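Bench notes, afternoon.
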Amino acid sequence: MQLVEDHQQVGFIEYTDAEYSSRVVHSEGYIMIHCLWVSAVGKGYGTQLLQKCIDDAKQRGKKGVAVLTNDQTSWTPSKALFLQHQFQLVATAPFDFELLVYPFSEDVELPYFPENWHER
């Protein structure tokens, strides 16, 4: 999903049903965000894109929205925006990966990482 202002792309968010995600996370019934990019910080672009994703997930009857973050990589989103919007850190994994989740109710199962990291 793109965000356009004055005929220019100022941001985009990429997400999919978690069952089809390339992320190594058990998160059936959730939307998994893969990428979120904005051209400028502080203009509300990230908030707009994230809200569209959340609204889409609710309309589609999902359990919530999940995202894999890692401040040490360039290919995962930064966690700051998600923490500002009530996503909760639910798990960590080797190599500084963090799983953040925005569940739509308190009684849904939360996504989780596999536990066999060393075998992988």
